[in-house]
Amino acid sequence: MPEGTLEVLVVGAKGLENTDFLCNMDPYLILTVTSQEQKSSIASGKGSDPEWNETFMFTVSGEATELKIKIMDSDTGTEDDYVGDATIPLGPLFLEGNISPAIYNVVKEEQYRGEIKIGLKFIPEERHDRSFNPAEIENFGDDCPANSGKPSQATGPVILRLSHVVNALMHCNSNRIQMITNTGPATGFHFLEWPQSYPTKRRKNREVP
Q: Which end of the chain, N or C, is less surrounded by CB atoms within 10 Å?
């Protein structure tokens, strides 16, 4: 499932049921994504057609499937009145990445109670994990970091097959080989000394009598 940041733009609402009979109600919103909850400002005296033009940010993980918006009427001295709610599925947003402000129905007890205008934007979390492609492996030996004396910088774990490592070693002309291994969230560098020559044992020629 996608992970990243959900940006919610609340424009306004229209045709809400006015729960205050003697005056215009004071609506506000409670926005919920999984266990995260945020409240809008109170649109004092705006009644059935409030405007907010407020933006809210949520951290999205694999558990987030919908955005719930509950509309309440703020009352002084008594419990706030429930006006209605809207539920917006997030699946289409994860595919599109951005949904321009659109109208969603507000319901109460499964009956239409007005509409609310919401815009959505999803910003995926940046991921740095990657694998070498064949071209990088083929050119690895021609640009051996040991030639410059400094290790190259990697942004994430690197996965090398044994055949790729062997190919890189065969192409590296330096006497110091840099091996890159996957060490988890941060990539570590291990340097192996590659000697100029190897000691060899030569068998003495046997003298023929």
A: C
Among 63, 61, 56, 62, which Cα is nearest to 30's?
56
Specify the range with the lowest mean pLDDT, choosing from 86-90, 99-103, 144-148.
Answer: 144-148
132: Cβ contacts below 8 Å, ≥ 6 apart: 140, 158, 159, 160, 164
Selection from 126, 127, 120 nearest residue 64 by Cα: 120
Q: Which of 174, 165, 156, 177 is nearest to 136 (CA)?
A: 165
Return the structure tokens found at 129. 């994990």
Nearest to 195 by CA among 181, 169, 176: 176
The residue count of the chain comes to 209
Q: In degrees rounded to 5, what are phi and psi of residue 109?
A: 55, 40
Rounded to 5 degrees, what are φ and ψ at 156? Answer: -175, 180
**d(Cα 18, Cα 31) in Å, to the nearest integer?**
20
pTM of the entire structure? Answer: 0.61
Residue 58's beta-bridge partner residues? 6
Tell me the C-alpha distance between 54 and 58, whole Å.
Answer: 14
Write out pLDDT tens, residues 64-93. 999 999 999 999 888 999 999 999 999 999
Give the type of residue at 21: F
Helix, strand, or coil (residue 59) = strand
Taking the C-alpha atoms of residue 20 and residue 46, their distance in angstroms, rounded to an integer, is 11
Distance CA 190, CA 47 (A): 67
pLDDT at 194 > cutoff 50: no
